[in-house]
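hey
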């Protein structure tokens, strides 16, 4: 049986809670990530920040259309201001089908993988899709 550790990305890109939203965007762009686990100085998972979290924070309809104001906001607000704090995570030994079910039902883009409260990896929807893409084609009459 496949487990999360078989497909997860070990030692994923991370960010700290005291980083600015601008720094989070730069990290996401540099590594083509849509989300980043937020870790404290001990490597413990304390949250997740996503592109959507940042968009919601900066593109509020209450703000003016002034793009310079939005850029200033990216440098003023911190990751901890916008991150999700109560993160659903999995263990490396979690069966892959259970992790896939969480991703599908909760509509998450990724799940952090923790062991003894320390972040050890991340499993993304892309990881699952890439795995499926490498598998032989399913028979047309095979039930799903």
């Amino acid at each position: 049986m496949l487990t999360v550790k078989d497909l997860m990305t070990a030692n994923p890109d991370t960010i700290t809670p005291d980083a600015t939203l601008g720094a989070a965007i730069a990290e996401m762009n540099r590594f083509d990530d849509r989300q980043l686990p937020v870790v404290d100085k001990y490597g413990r998972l304390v949250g997740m920040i996503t592109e959507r979290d940042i968009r919601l924070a900066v593109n509020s309809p209450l703000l003016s259309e002034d793009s310079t104001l939005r850029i200033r906001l990216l440098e003023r607000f911190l990751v901890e201001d916008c991150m999700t704090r109560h993160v659903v995570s999995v263990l490396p030994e979690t069966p892959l089908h259970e992790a896939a079910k969480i991703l599908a039902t909760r509509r998450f883009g990724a799940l952090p993988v923790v062991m003894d409260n320390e972040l050890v990896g991340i499993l993304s929807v892309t990881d699952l899709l890439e795995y499926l893409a490498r598998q032989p084609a399913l028979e047309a009459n095979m039930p799903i």
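The radius of gyration is 17 Å. The CA atoms of residues 14 and 36 lie 5 Å apart.
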